[in-house]
Design goal:
Blueprint: E1 4-8, E2 14-19, H1 20-26, E3 29-41, E4 44-52, E5 63-64, E6 67-70, H2 81-88, E7 98-108, E8 113-124, E9 139-146, H3 147-154, E10 161-170, E11 173-181, H4 191-205
Parallel strand pairs: 3-8
Antiparallel strand pairs: 1-2, 3-4, 3-6, 4-5, 4-9, 7-8, 9-10, 10-11
Helix pairs in contact: 3-4
Amino acid sequence: MTEWIDIYSEDFQHIGTATREEVHAKGYWHKTFHCWIVMQQEGVPYIVLQKRHPNKDTNPNKLDVSCAGHLSAGEQVSDGIRELREELGIDVPFTALSPLGIVHVAAQTENIRDFEACHIFMHVTPHALSDLHPQTDEISALYLAQLTDAIQLFRGEQPSIRLHGYTVIDSAKRTPSEIEARLEDFVAHTTAYYTDTLKAIQTQLCP
């Protein structure tokens, strides 16, 4: 099914709609929804990272924000909450999310021009990683990273961090997994995107 997306000028005036393929081929600005899931273990905050499916058209096999997706044509930012249900099986109202800001990201490769206004949120869940239900055609693994470790990684204060979680083949088969993650293993958002977002999460948790 064709996915239609609202597109915008550089000064973010709405100029129409385009297919996902056109958006990435022609470099139209568009809106995306990002939500960072936070879990606490013995009072220590961890963030959930997803590993993108190898068949994704952008950033396959890269570690990414817990949940992310495009807003379809006509959707409001609050409608992005569906991404949590679809990708992770988390069913919460939009009011359960805490806003972290909007970041404009421009990424270009040989075949894709991806210009996004990322609307970023966080959600602290009482659930464990094993309680989530990853969408297996979008996600190949879920991992936990200690928040302070992740901040140090993106600040360049340590070369890698240890992640633990599980890989998924289908909804019924999960395999425990531990990996050492470096900067190059993550989707190439700007360093500022990661450091500013993770520090904002830390501030919200410990104001």
